[in-house]
Amino acid sequence: MSLRNNIYNFLVNIACMILLVGNLVYLIAVWGGLPEQIPAHFDSAGNITSYSGKGTLLIMPIVNWAMFIGISVIERFPQIWNTGVRVTKENKWRVYRIIKNMIVTTKFTMVAPFVFISVNQSLGTNLPIWFLPVFLFVCFASLVFFIINLIRAR
Q1: In Å, how far are 35, 69, 70, 123 from 65, measured between CA atoms?
Q2: Which segments within 66-132 are labelled E, that is strand?
Q3: Among 99, 95, 78, which Cα is nearest to 143's?
Q4: What is the pLDDT of residue 4?
Q5: What is the phi/psi pair of residue 41, to 5°?
Q6: How far apart, in Å, are the Cα atoms of 17 and each of 4, 64, 103, 123, 150?
Q7: Model confidence over 74-97: pLDDT tens digits?
Q8: Whose CA is closest to 68, among 11, 106, 107?
Q9: What is the C-alpha R_g of the chain?
Q10: DSSP-derived pairing of the beta strands 48-53 and 37-42
């Protein structure tokens, strides 16, 4: 893989780690001042639909860390990736580079919104109306981008 791709993967992983650790540090810092009941669920418009005990705030970072670690493990084993295209000697490194970049990007597009939701829950406010459309757009646009690049690389 090229140095540029290694730098991209490294920086995205560092950004994910900063968000994950920052989320934990933030929750520890504000824990004592949180009300006993915090928002537990939001509808598609971002409105709070139910409340739960503040202990449920721990679920989001646990799930986020589990996703991050799971995707990071998968990222290390290109032989198990379903590339969607035939991998040959000639295209192997191009295909694997594109898939790895897609995996790392997807990891970030999962970690960042979970941190945002976690912090938002602790504040006890509705999610912004733009959150769901922006989240969905970023997820699908990045996937389409990488799939197009993958088809071109075959």
Answers
A1: 24, 6, 8, 21
A2: none
A3: 99
A4: 73
A5: -150, 145
A6: 20, 11, 15, 22, 27
A7: 998 888 888 888 888 888 888 889
A8: 107
A9: 18
A10: antiparallel
d(CA 72, CA 13): 9
> Which residues make Cβ contacts (< 8 Å) with residue 52, sequence separation at least 6?
37, 38, 40
Q: How many residues does the chain have?
A: 154
How far apart are alpha carbons 84 and 31 in whole angstroms? Answer: 45
Taken in order 64, 66, 70, 72, the sign of the CA dihedral is positive
Q: Are 68 and 34 in contact (CB under 8 A)?
A: no
The dihedral built from the CA positions of residue 60, 61, 62 and 66, taken in this order, carries a sign that is: positive
pTM comes to 0.86
Which amino acid is located at 52 in the chain?
S
| CA 40/CA 121 separation, integer angstroms | 7
